[in-house]
Each structure stands twice: as C-alpha cells, then as structure tokens.
Write a structure and sequence with these properties.
With about 650 residues, this protein is an alpha+beta fold. It folds into 3 domains: about 210 residues, Histidine kinase-like ATPase, C-terminal domain (Heat Shock Protein 90), CATH 3.30.565.10; about 160 residues, Ribosomal Protein S5, domain 2; about 180 residues, Rossmann fold (3-Layer(aba) Sandwich). It contains 20 helices and 28 strands. The strands form 7 sheets. Strands 2, 3, 7, 8, 9, 10, 11, 12 and 13 form a 9-stranded mixed β-sheet that branches. It has a 5-stranded mixed β-sheet with strand order 14-15-18-16-17, with helices on both faces. It has a 5-stranded mixed β-sheet with strand order 22-21-23-24-28, sandwiched between helices. Strand 14 and strand 15 form a beta hairpin. It starts with 11 loop residues before the first strand and ends in a 9-residue tail after the last helix.
Length: about 650
C-alpha cells in the first residue's frame, strides 16, 4: 500500500499546550490512576490508528523498572520532515502542539481513535521526560523532551531497513497522584484492542517482575472476544452470531451470543474506544434487536396462549453477551475521555444494519432462533412475576411509602452525602454495631444468614427474597431496570456510603461476595457511583503488658512483633468474627471514620468483573475448581 500521502504537509495544527499542565484532568479525565493509564492508551491508540490505516501489524508495550513506559510499533513512523507553515520539524510539531496530527488530513487516516491529535502532545506535556525514536525513509531519528519542551534537536542516529515509532515517557510525579502502573489494567485494554483489530499482535512486558508478560493476537476478532467473555457460561447456541457491514462509510461489526445466565453484558466501541456510557451506536443496536426479535416471535406465534404478554427490550437482552464495534470517519464523543458516542446518524445506520443482518440470520437458522425466542419469552414471564412480587412486597413491607424495615437502626442525618449504612452479618454483630455506632449519621442493617446467590436466580426469585427486599427498602433506590418508571433510581439513595461489614473468616468472605454479586448485577449504579465500601475489621489484637495494638494484616502483625522484640509474653488474639469484639472495640477499629480503614469498591474493568463473578458464583463448577486449585497455596488461614 502506497504511503506517499502521509508527509510533513499532512500535519495540520491548532495551537496551545500550556493549558494541559494547568488543567490535566480536562484532557485525560483525572490525575489519579485512571489518568495515569490513559497516557499509555493515547500512545497505543496512535499505533492502532496506523493498523486501521493498514500499515501496522505489531505493537509492543514495556513497563520499565522506573515506571516509564515504551510503546513501539511497525507503522510508517511519525513524519520528521520540515513543516514550512510552522517552521519546525513535523515530529516536534506533533509532540508539542495541541491539535496537531495527521488525523485532520482525511487522506492520512480514514478512521482514527486517538484524541484527534491531542493525545500524544498531552502525554508529552505531562511527562517529566519523553523520547521519540522514528524509523522512516531508511533512517533512525530521535528527539527528547522535558514536560513538553524539546531538550534536543531532531537527531539522525543511523541507517535502518525497519520502520515504525517508539515513544518512551515517564509520567510527571508533580502532576499525578501515583506513577505506579498496573500491569493488569494495561493488559485489559491491550487485550480489548487485540480483539477489536483481528490479527494484530500486541505484547506487554513488565520489567519490574521477571517473566511477567502477555501477548495477544486474535484472528477471530469479535467472535474470539465473545468466546472469552462467555468462557465460564453455558451458551445457548454453539458459535457466536457475527456480522459486519460497511454502510455510508461506517463499518459496523457485531458479535453476540446468548447464554443460560440471567444477565446482559453488552460492550460498545467506537474506533476502538470503549464507550462505557454507550451512545448512538448502542441505542441503534438495542432498537434493532428489540424490533427484529419481537418480529420473529410475532410472525412465528411463539407466545401462543399468552397474547397479553408484553416483551420488552430487557427481556430480549437477558443472557445476551454482545460487542458492538463501529468505525467511522468523524466521531463525536461526549467528553474528552470519550465515554459516549454522540453522532446522531450512527443510531440509524446501526439500527438498519443490525435489523437486516440479524433478521436474515434468524430466518436462516430456525433452531437457534427458536431457542433465543423461547428464552426471551420466559424472561418476560419472569419479569411479570417479579413485578407482582415487588408489588406484594411493597404492600407487605411498606416499600411504596416512606416505611423502612423493622430491623433497620436508622440514623438521624437525612443528607445522603453525610450518612452511611452498615450491612452487618448476623444479629450478634449487628447488636455490637448498633451499640458502637454514632447514631447521628450511621445506620445499621443486620442481615440473617447468607443472601440468595443472584447469579443462579431469575429476577422473580430475587425480588421475593426477604433480605434483598430489606436492603432495597433501606437503600431507597428502587429495584430493577433503570429503563422502568419504578426501576432503580440512584437519585433516591438514602445513604452516601453502603458499607459491607462481615466477619474475617470464610463464611464472612462468602457473605461479602454474595452481597457484591447482588450489587454488581442488580444495582450496578451504586458501584459505578462509588457508593459501595468494604469495612476492614482487624485480624489480630496484640497485647504486651498494658499495651494493646490492633493489626489488619499478617505483614502488619510481623512488623509489630519485631518492634516488641524486647518484650516477652506478647498475647496474640486472632478475630474470626465481629461478635468477638466489644462495641467500643468494633467502633474504634472498624466504624469510627477517624480510625477505621474502608476499601472503596471500584469498577475499573467491567469485563473482568463479569468473568470473576460468573466463575465464583455461576453454575459451572470446573472453572471454580480450577481457580481454587490455582490459588490454594496462597491461603494462610482456612477456617473449618
């Protein structure tokens, strides 16, 4: 493929870079861990854009020992020629000027996913040092920068037969709250890119840990992505349904598969960017899915004797895993970090494409179509049963009014931002928590036994479960699809912090996992909004003479014992349950905001979270057995 069009003259510019250092969060989302990792994504996106243009087959990412990162590709290499208009070399222009890049020249990139030329210059501005090495036109070129300012001229290092770009940068500790990169977070994004761009090889190496690396390459593309997502689930049909279509200059690619679970998992991408808040492409897919499957159900008289049954979109998405990927010339994203696609015409394009292709598939595969239709009808029946169970529960427990559960020890504060609720395991611990709390802003909700495993239950069974009813009633948010008029509404949340406080034993861990599964599957808005926390009760109380110390980990215990080495007769008490602590001890160690430690539950990787919950709590035994075998040696204490 000829590449004469991509030259120094291809680089168009819109000025300004100082604002990036003044307000970095405007450009990369935050100065915390998400923003730090976003730097890598921006550089990698430029390499992927080269792949989309047909010039790059491999990307290598290396995390160095000092937390600097290198991204190397075998694309065309950033142009280095003199840019007459800007009176500097094109490489310097791209790396030091906001809105400078080849993506404003429609002949260089038909489709791109980087920040429209903002990305790599932002990375440079927010890095204490950056080096760009370009292999192009038979030469190796290099240029170095400090916080976006060139510290060397463009240098020619020698000859080469290779081509491509290598960007090495070290994040500025004066900008970021942390400069420690997570191998797992970066691997997740690189794996996504490998799925979305079938055949490309992406490798990540962590030089901080010997032998730690991944290499991703998926010739099956989105089909492989679905297989990966549904690894621990039982599919309704053997192979994912896959189709793609080029329509009005937009490439629409869909892969989908129904499984026997009760949850929907739909992931949308635009030009390889994970649009976590969806957008017009997701809306178009959902509309087409609802219309097409409903049309099949009607034309084939699947409902038969239940003509009054209304089948909604959520019924048609139960047990569905799908990936929607669109590639378009001029994406319009809402927000700099591209959480939502806004191009209005894309909804119609995806709607039409999916309608045509899915309709043809269902017509040509009647056996699979019948299984899908039956599952959707059964889902609608269960949803209707859940609605009746919800109404019954409201009448019984006062859920429809301002009534609260009898077992809830509520707080005096009515401002959700200033109040918190503890979900406590058992009446004994609940009693200690009630006595130890600050009743002005802390509410206590004791839960008896282990709640229902919602991973294995349909919605009608879930809403009928007493402890789940009690939680929904206490939270005040409602329950069910946000699309329903009386469904989940986070604006009605009564407590800003929902704190899971369970025993530090196996049963406590199981109860905590059951609660997290329920919240993740049926109240994900609470997790996404940062309302869910896990209390950290101490594992040990150490006593030497009159001195007592609470410690929360084995490492902390060893450190404490070493500091007391000159003292003898250190008494070590290991807490297995919250009920073993007096109310004042529980308050001091676990509940008092001035002395406690809380872990906030965050959803950084929804794909991996789905896989973990399915593996731990789903029907399939073998994946769970393998997980236990692989991690058994890490267990130090097993309560039996």
């Amino acid at each position: 493929m000829a590449d004469q069009q991509y030259t120094a003259d291809s680089i168009k510019t819109l000025k300004g870079l100082d604002a990036v250092r003044k307000r970095p969060a405007m450009y990369i989302g935050s100065t915390g861990s998400p923003g730090l990792h976003h730097l890598v994504y921006e550089v990698v996106d430029n390499s992927i854009d080269e792949a989309l243009a047909g010039y790059c087959t491999r990307v290598d990412v290396v995390i160095h020992a000092d937390n600097s990162v290198s991204v190397t590709d075998d694309g065309r290499g950033i142009p280095v020629g003199y840019h007459a208009e800007e009176k500097m070399c094109a490489l310097q222009l791209v790396l030091t000027t906001l809105h400078a890049g080849g993506k404003f020249d429609n002949s260089s990139y038909k489709v791109s996913g980087g920040l429209h030329g903002v990305g790599v210059s932002c990375v440079n501005a927010l890095s204490v040092e950056m080096t760009a090495e370009v292999r192009r036109d038979g030469k190796i070129y290099s240029m170095a920068f400090n916080r976006g300012v060139p510290v060397t001229e463009l240098q020619t290092l020698g000859d080469t037969e290779k081509r491509g770009t290598r960007i090495t940068f070290k994040p500025d500790p004066d900008v970021f709250e942390t400069t420690e990169y997570s191998f797992d977070i970066l691997s997740k994004r690189l794996r996504e890119l490998a799925f979305l761009n079938k055949g490309i090889i992406i490798k990540i190496v962590d030089e901080r840990v010997e032998g730690k690396q991944h290499e991703f390459c998926y010739p099956g593309g989105l089909s492989s992505f679905i297989t990966y997502l549904d690894e621990n689930k039982t599919p309704l049909h053997p192979s994912p349904i896959c189709f793609s279509q080029l329509k009005d200059g937009v490439e629409v690619e869909i892969a989908m598969q129904y499984n026997d679970s009760y949850n929907e998992n739909i992931f949308s991408f635009a030009n390889n960017i994970n649009t976590v808040d969806g957008g017009t492409h997701l809306s178009g897919f959902k509309t087409a899915l609802t219309r097409t499957v409903n049309s099949y159900i009607d034309s084939n008289n699947i409902i038969k004797n239940n003509n009054k049954l209304e089948i909604k979109g959520e019924d048609l998405r139960e047990g569905l895993t799908a990936v929607i990927s669109v590639k378009l010339p001029n994406p319009q994203f809402e927000g700099q970090t591209k959480a939502k696609l806004g191009n209005s015409d894309i909804a119609g394009i995806v709607n039409t494409s999916v309608g045509e292709m899915l309709g043809a598939f269902l017509a040509e595969n009647p056996a699979i179509a019948k299984k899908i239709a039956d599952k959707c009808v059964n889902s609608a029946i269960a949803r209707e049963a859940a609605r009746k169970a919800r109404m019954l529960a409201r009448r019984k427990n006062g859920m429809e009014s301002a009534g609260l559960p009898d077992k809830l020890a509520d707080c005096q504060e009515r401002d959700p931002a200033k109040s918190e609720i503890f979900l406590v395991e058992g009446d004994s611990a609940g009693g200690s928590a009630k006595m130890g709390r600050d009743r002005t802003f802390q509410a206590i909700l004791p839960l008896k036994g282990k709640i229902l495993n919602v991973e294995k239950a349909r919605i009608d069974k879930i809403i009928s479960h007493e402890e789940i009813q009690v939680m929904v009633q206490a939270f005040g948010t409602g329950f069910g699809s946000v699309e329903d008029e009386d469904g989940f509404n986070i604006d009605k949340l009564r407590y800003g912090k929902i704190i899971i406080m369970t025993d530090a034993d196996v049963d406590g861990a199981h109860i905590r996992t059951l609660l997290l599964t329920f919240l993740f599957r049926h109240m994900p808005g609470l997790v996404e909004n940062g309302n869910v926390y896990i209390a950290q009760p101490p594992l040990y109380k150490l006593k030497a003479g009159k001195e007592e110390r609470y410690v929360y980990s084995d490492n902390e215990k060893e450190t404490a014992l070493q500091s007391w080495s000159e003292k003898k007769n250190v008494v070590i008490q290991r807490y297995k349950g919250l009920g073993e602590m007096n109310p004042d001890q529980l308050a001091e160690t676990t509940m008092n905001p001035d002395t406690r430690t809380l872990l906030q539950v965050k959803l950084e990787d929804s794909i991996e979270a789905d896989r973990i919950f399915t593996m731990l709590m789903g029907e399939e035994v073998e994946p769970r057995r393998k997980f236990i075998e692989d991690n058994a040696e890490k267990v130090k204490f097993l309560d039996v």
